[in-house]
Amino acid sequence: MKTGEEMEKVKTASLVLNQFQQAVWQYLVAIVGIMSPDEGSVEGTGTIIELGGRVLLVTAEHVISQIEAKGYLGVAFSNGNNKAYTCAPGPFIKHPPIDVAFVCIPRPELPASDRLVCPERLIGRSSTGVEKDLLFIDGFPGNDSKFWQLLKGIRSKTFTFAAYAGVSKWAAFDPAIHFAIRFEPNHCIGIDGKSADMPIPPDGLSGTAVWNMRRKEVGPNWTPEDGRVVGIVQRWDPDGQCLIATRIEHILPFVRTWGLHACQNAL
Predict the structure, then answer these.
(1) CA-to-CA distance for 189 and 186, rounded, in angstroms?
(2) Residue 1's pLDDT band (boundaries 50, 70, 90)?
(3) Measured between alpha carbons, how far is 158 from 84 in angstroms, rounded to an integer?
(4) How far apart are CA 47 and CA 138, in angstroms?
(5) Is the pTM of this model over 0.85?
(6) Where are the domains of the chain?
(7) What is the spatial distance between Cα 262 and Cα 70, in angstroms, rounded to a whole number?
């Protein structure tokens, strides 16, 4: 049985995670490989961001490459539960060495989409501090997301959790490029403030934005607006029981270099 102090911590954790999820969930989309007009497969998660006045959909490079390798008809992304999906308006710009890809998209608008654009001010310039603060992830596990023509859209259930930095055992892990997030039930907090029910393997979480909630850094005056995107999930490390993310310092130069030119040509 939990003590009163432990119950209070659970209550606080649940409140904080709910507040943060409500602030960021509409930036998320499921990345789908179109198999036919009747069927699709959720292959990963993406985030809609604004950078340099352009709207971009950012995800992991291997998510897009595996859709192409499987010979799917194309790439689509969700606009909200039971809303018609949108086909990517052009090819993704890919950078395999850091496992990041993006495509320029029109700004989402009601009634076709209930997604929002993550403003540039919430995109971190540095991932410094991720080893010391609580990290937040909200993504679309493939097993909990389905695409049906009957619903004219993608019915998706996100997986939400927070955890501290982990220690990777992946041979190619480079701390200058990557950071790790613990991915084990005893060290991850679910949206209800309890241990999260982990999807193993975490298919569909690739491409998910990682947020540094910055609770410790900001202190008692913290609000969800203090959170910053500090990386993108690229893989699961089963030996280290953690997720591996690419640091934002390596993502921003690539997107800035190619983003404006690509958007000018695409839209």
Answers:
(1) 8
(2) very low
(3) 18
(4) 10
(5) yes
(6) 4-266
(7) 25
